[in-house]
Amino acid sequence: MFVLELSYHAPIEQVDALLPAHREWLEAQYAAGVFLASGRKEPREGGVILAGGVDRAEIERLVATDPFSVAGVCAYRIVQFYATKTADGLAPFRDGLPA
User: Fold this and answer.
1) How far apart are CA 99 and CA 94, in angstroms?
2) Integer Cα distance of 79 and 20 in angstroms
3) Are the C-beta atoms of 50 and 35 separated by less than 8 Å?
4) In whole angstroms, what is the distance from residue 40 CA to residue 20 CA?
5) By the 8 A CB rule, do 72 and 8 touch?
6) Whether the Cβ atoms of residue 1 and residue 50 lie closer than 8 Å to each other
7) CA–CA separation, 75 vs 62, rounded Å?
8) What is the pLDDT of residues 22-45, one digit of tens each?
9) What per-residue confidence (pLDDT) applies to 91?
10) Residue 81: C-alpha distances to residues 26, 70, 85, 89 (Å)
11) Contact, 25 vs 58, CB < 8 A?
């Protein structure tokens, strides 16, 4: 699984202008089964996305297509982790530890 942390690097007005396109991009990733949860950070200086079911190369490819990334208004920090324990609803995303 992945925790994707977005940090804004532009005035919030520039972020807000891209928000409709960013939301469409989010919806596409939810429809594809990659994104599990997302939302703004508080204070509003970025956001967080929980993703799973793909490898790191695919996550890196996806974040590069986010309208926020394309326009340069945010930077992503990608944290990969092994979800060895989850709520029942996330059972399909559980990982075993690597050898």
Assistant:
1) 16
2) 26
3) yes
4) 14
5) no
6) yes
7) 13
8) 999 999 999 999 999 999 999 999
9) 85
10) 21, 26, 11, 18
11) no
Query: 74 φ, ψ to 5°?
Result: -145, 165
d(CA 90, CA 1): 11
Q: How many helices (H) and strands (E) does the chain have?
A: 3, 4
Residue written as token pair 């974040």: 63
CA quadruple 67, 70, 76, 79: dihedral positive or negative? positive
CA dist 26 and 50 (Å) reads 11
How far does the chain reach from its first CA to its final CA, in angstroms? 17
The amino acid occupying position 48 is V
CA distances from 6 to 29, 66, 72, 94, 95 (A): 16, 11, 11, 24, 24
Residue 83 burial (CB < 10 Å; 0-12/13-18/19+)?
Answer: middle
Residue 56: pLDDT band (50, 70, 90) is very high
